[in-house]
Amino acid sequence: AENKYFLPDEQMYEDESIQEDCWTVIGSFFEEKGLVRQQLDSFDEFVQNTMQELVDENSNLVLQHVGGDGDKRYIIDFGQIYLSKPTMTEADGSSQPMFPQEARIYAAPLYIDMSKRTQIARPQDPNNPITNPKDFIIDEGHETPPKTKVFVGKV
């Protein structure tokens, strides 16, 4: 009877050969780039591209109250993100730039452009619950505000 839990010998040796090839490729990669360079490149890619892509994919946040303000909807728009240069804050509250030779671990302030719009429900039928986005209109008398740069945290 054939044992279904073990590979035939020729397939087992083939898999070992593939594993050896993989380790050869991985070894060559780290010889050329080095582990630290690979980590720095990965971080740079995240900061320079991936964070903005995530913001762009989810650039609108819609909040609707239940209760007293149930007829209002707030829309927050997210835009460009900015990563400032790393700084250190002194005990007196003053900030100054920080450079890698001063600290191995430091954080840089992260900002994002944001704006908020308000919509008010104007249902066509007073007995109809407000569920359709078409029932909401932009709050009259308020133009779309310009985006402001808001501190999000540190990276």
TrEMBL record:
<dbReference type="InterPro" id="IPR015712">
    <property type="entry name" value="DNA-dir_RNA_pol_su2"/>
</dbReference>
<dbReference type="GO" id="GO:0032549">
    <property type="term" value="F:ribonucleoside binding"/>
</dbReference>
<keyword id="KW-0808">Transferase</keyword>
<dbReference type="InterPro" id="IPR007644">
    <property type="entry name" value="RNA_pol_bsu_protrusion"/>
</dbReference>
<dbReference type="Pfam" id="PF04563">
    <property type="entry name" value="RNA_pol_Rpb2_1"/>
</dbReference>
<dbReference type="GO" id="GO:0003677">
    <property type="term" value="F:DNA binding"/>
</dbReference>
<keyword id="KW-0240">DNA-directed RNA polymerase</keyword>
<keyword id="KW-0548">Nucleotidyltransferase</keyword>
<keyword id="KW-0804">Transcription</keyword>
<dbReference type="GO" id="GO:0000428">
    <property type="term" value="C:DNA-directed RNA polymerase complex"/>
</dbReference>
<protein>
    <recommendedName>
        <fullName>DNA-directed RNA polymerase</fullName>
        <ecNumber>2.7.7.6</ecNumber>
    </recommendedName>
</protein>
<feature type="domain" description="RNA polymerase beta subunit protrusion">
    <location>
        <begin position="34"/>
        <end position="154"/>
    </location>
</feature>
<dbReference type="GO" id="GO:0006351">
    <property type="term" value="P:DNA-templated transcription"/>
</dbReference>
<comment type="similarity">
    <text>Belongs to the RNA polymerase beta chain family.</text>
</comment>
<dbReference type="GO" id="GO:0003899">
    <property type="term" value="F:DNA-directed RNA polymerase activity"/>
</dbReference>
